[in-house]
Specification:
The structure is a homodimer of 273-residue chains. Chain A has one domain: Electron Transport, Fmn-binding Protein, Chain A (Pnp Oxidase, Chain A, Roll). With 273 residues, chain A is an alpha+beta fold. The mean pLDDT of chain A is 93. A 6-stranded antiparallel barrel of chain A has the order 2-3-4-7-6-5. Chain A is built from 8 helices and 9 strands. Chains A and B meet through strand 2, strand 3, strand 5, strand 6 and helix 4 of A and strand 2, strand 3, strand 5, strand 6 and helix 4 of B. Strand 8 (220-228) of chain A pairs antiparallel with strand 8 (220-228) of chain B, so a sheet runs across the interface. Chains A, B: InterPro entries: Pyridox_Oxase-rel, Split_barrel_FMN-bd. Chains A, B: This is FMN-binding split barrel.
């Protein structure tokens, strides 16, 4: 990966179908990953000759770039994931007898995906039905983060990515036991791509000219977004007012999600290619 | 898979971490998959010795059980996925020179995952932060559906799973060209499991007894759900009133999503194990 703002097109990342929806710029890919409330991470737990099934785990994480104080070069953006040290996924990259290590690979090959659904696209015919969405797929090698400073950086990053300023507004630093039972994995990006559909329903000329079709079938978009509701305090909560950093994330994400979903619902569909 | 209502626990499906969140009953798994606006499907495009990276594609689909009219036994529930016939994924299972066919596997090994995020769980310490979620992971062999009646069944099923009654309320039947460019894949289930977290924040005794922590840190849940907005008609739309089947799905899904996310936010956290 270079420091350019575009990811390279590789056979693995190149979008073949509906090329007009494909994007490779780092900013779009990063924004889709970082704003997703969940990431889906795929990997092979054992060598495919022992079990040919990849598996998927839902995980929390986001993009970050940690550069050690004495490093000569700035690090490229990578995806940081965190989880329990005892879980299968977090034990794999540091395991020298894992299938990936035995194959001499520079880490565990993983795929990280995030998808936002921004609307139901209802066309005249089922065939033209679709969704408005923003989807990112990233391939990379997973590495266990062993450097204490990088691990601190990643844990703060992931927590604040979910709710900005949350780390500083909770009980920190973590205890030694908490740090020991939490692991961080860094996925060094090998290839990445995104697909975005963001416009009104696309219908065929033949259907639009057929009175019996347009006179009967409703066509358009039902906008969709992730809604954050009123915070519900725990029974043990003793802070009476919902803190500013929590109120703000709810307000901002709701406004952004709703605005985007509604805006794109009226955008013109591109000519079919 | 038997016709029992529980999926068998296998090494592949057995949840090791946080066992109290694990469920294996078919009804829960099916409901998580069927109510998800998007499925994430993982597979190996080529033999892992040529490229060790699994990939993930976001896809539409749901559970169904098609039994041919002359069949002696009822079919087990499988996941049906649809997509463009020219896309890489839909060309793989019917390809006799694919790596899976060459290995003699009974189909392309895939993993299908769906995750609903039902809330942000804000604890006193970052370590106890979590999400409320319902997540299902299904492993199975993907087969290209070649039987015309089963394909019809699956396309109607997938369309009506997104918006009930939509198939009958749009221009059907599909044209020959539409049927030709649409492919259906059936994933015959080999193993499946789900994980559900549905309760308030869990905090450690030491933090709850520390005045400087409980006096400062807000703890509780921010409920989250998928919100469906007002339908936005396409410029070409000629049906003035939003049809009943569209209005109903919006109303029902919003009510269900909001109700669940809020209900579970007040549920007691189980004792830590």
């Amino acid at each position: 990966m270079s420091d350019a703002t575009q990811y390279e097109k590789t056979p693995r990342s190149t979008v073949n179908r509906l090329k007009q929806r494909a994007v490779y710029d780092q900013e779009t890919i990063r924004s889709i990953i970082d704003t997703s409330p969940i990431l889906h991470v795929s990997f092979l737990p054992v060598h495919p000759s022992d079990d040919p099934f990849p598996t998927i785990l839902p995980m929390l994480g986001c993009f970050g770039a940690y550069t050690a104080p004495n490093a000569e070069l700035q690090s490229a953006p990578a995806i940081y994931l965190h989880g329990h040290s005892a879980s299968r996924f977090f034990k794999l990259p540091g395991n020298t007898s894992s299938w990936a290590a035995e194959e001499g690979l520079p880490g565990l090959p993983v795929c990280v995906a995030a998808t936002h659904i921004d609307g139901l696209v209802l066309a005249l015919t089922p065939f033209n039905h679709s969704s408005n969405y923003r989807s990112a797929v990233v391939h990379g090698y997973a590495q266990l983060v062993t450097d204490a400073a990088e691990k601190d950086y990643a844990l703060t990053l992931i927590t604040d990515n979910i709710v900005p300023e949350r780390w500083a507004n909770s009980r920190v630093p973590p205890t030694e036991a908490e740090m020991k039972t939490t692991s961080v994995i860094r996925v060094d990006v090998v290839s990445a791509s995104a697909k975005v559909r963001a416009y009104t329903a696309g219908n065929d000329k033949a259907d639009l000219e057929d009175e019996s079709v347009v006179g009967k079938v409703w066509t358009g978009v039902v906008p969709m977004w992730t809604q954050y509701g009123e915070p519900v305090p725990a029974v043990e909560n003793r802070v009476s007012r919902v803190p500013e950093h929590v109120a703000r994330v709810i307000e901002e994400r709701n406004a952004e999600g709703e605005q985007w979903a509604k805006d794109i619902a009226t955008r013109k569909a591109p000519k079919k290619t």
